[in-house]
Write a structure and sequence with these properties.
Helix content is about 25%, strand content about 35%. By secondary structure, the protein is α+β, with helices and mostly antiparallel strands. It starts with a helix and ends with a strand.
């Protein structure tokens, strides 16, 4: 009987491994095929991306508007929910990318991206903050994961990179790692943002309903 139970367990375990998905499996997927899709606009320029839960983690995927397909996942998404005074709630989705390298006129840093979604998927606002953080190979490792990581390790490595960047950015902002939307009002953004042509770099995108 024990041998039968062991065989059943091993069969189940191996089946789970075979069926485990990688975020890489969704590269090239058509628009709307992920769990959710967002289109936000700043100064007339649209920025689109999609979310997909893969196994236990939520990932964000870039979007190619010409081909109308999703690019590779570029960050794990960290979700926080905050209650509003009116009894409703707002979900804050936190994610990062490492595209600000030493070649940029601002110097190296990290893009902190925040999407706020209110009750019933209304009142969506998207922010992008260019955080002043020394490279320390953060950008190099991010690019390596996106271009070279194997399918079976991609989720884990991208998740680890996101968690490490979240620790760095939280410390830079002077916040706990589990910060919520209400905590962002405590941040002195002028002290943490990169600068270009004398202006601190951040963007606010309006997301049509």
């Amino acid at each position: 009987m024990k041998k039968i139970l062991l065989l059943v367990f091993l069969s189940f375990f191996l089946n789970q491994l075979v069926n485990a998905k990688s975020a890489l499996d969704y590269l090239g997927s058509k628009k709307g095929s992920l769990d959710s899709h967002y289109k936000c606009v700043v100064e007339g320029i649209p920025k689109e991306f999609g979310f997909k839960k893969v196994n236990k983690d939520l990932f964000v995927f870039g979007f190619d508007p010409e081909e109308k397909i999703y690019d590779a996942a570029f960050s794990k998404v960290i979700k926080r929910r905050s209650k509003m005074k009116n009894g409703g709630y707002v979900d804050m989705f936190i994610f990062y990318d490492g595209t600000i390298d030493n070649s940029m006129p601002t110097g190296p840093g990290l893009k902190l991206r925040l999407l706020f979604v209110g009750d019933k998927n209304k009142n969506k606002i998207y922010y992008e903050y260019w955080i002043d953080i020394p490279d320390n190979n953060n950008n190099t490792e991010w690019l390596r994961i996106l271009s070279e990581e194997t399918r079976d390790k991609f989720n884990k490595k991208l998740s680890e990179w996101t968690n490490n960047m979240h620790k760095l950015v939280s410390k830079k902002l002077g916040l706990e790692e589990n910060f919520g939307a209400e905590d962002l009002t405590k941040v002195n953004w002028n002290n943490v943002l990169l600068e270009y042509n004398g202006k601190k770099v951040s963007f606010k995108h309006i997301c049509p309903k």
